[in-house]
Amino acid sequence: MSRTQAEQLALAHSESGLHCAESVASAITKLFCPDQAGIVCRMATGFGGGLAGSRQEACGALTGGVLAIGLLCGRTTPDQDRETAYRVSAAYRERFMARFNGTICQTIRNGFTTSDTRTACRSLTAEAAGILYDILQEHGYAVNRS
């Protein structure tokens, strides 16, 4: 698998009708933890469009990615380490902000150079999945090849 494949998978999810959070969460989970892809997509549903379509909160491509990070390196009890999830999430947020000039859905949309926001959001979603793919690889997470 490669970054390009992660981007293509997220784009295909988006074109099928899934929104930004569902598309990134599903694409990354399908690559790294495929048996959990369905549940993560369901968990991401409320995060689309800046939280329930409000566009006032964090971009769904960002929050969907953080959900996938939590699945891969999150904790299940308070005595477990959370620093790895924080570190990976922070790296994703930083690269996301650097690339898209913000994290708030409407702020990002205001920066689009086209009035075709559906296509622009799909492109952003695909690129966000690629960014997260790279970060996970850099942090030692391997694609599940089964």
Average predicted confidence as pLDDT: 95
Helix vs. strand class: mainly alpha
Largest sheet descriptor: none
Basic shape: globular
Strand tally is: 0
User: What portion of the residues fall into strands of 2 or more residues?
Assistant: under 5%
Low-confidence stretches: none
| Share in helix | 55-70%
The H/E string reads: HHHHHHH
Radius of gyration: 14 Å
Description:
This protein has 146 residues and is an all-alpha fold. The chain is 64% helix and 0% strand. Helix 5 (83-100) crosses helix 7 (117-138). The longest helix has 22 residues, at 117-138. It is globular, with a radius of gyration of 14 Å.
Essential attributes:
146 residues, mainly alpha, 7 helices
Short description:
The chain has seven helices and no strands. By secondary structure, the chain is mostly helical.
Secondary-structure blueprint:
Blueprint lengths: L2 H13 L4 H13 L4 H8 L15 H14 L9 H18 L4 H6 L6 H22 L8
Helix pairs in contact: 1-2, 1-7, 2-3, 2-4, 2-7, 3-4, 4-5, 4-7, 5-7
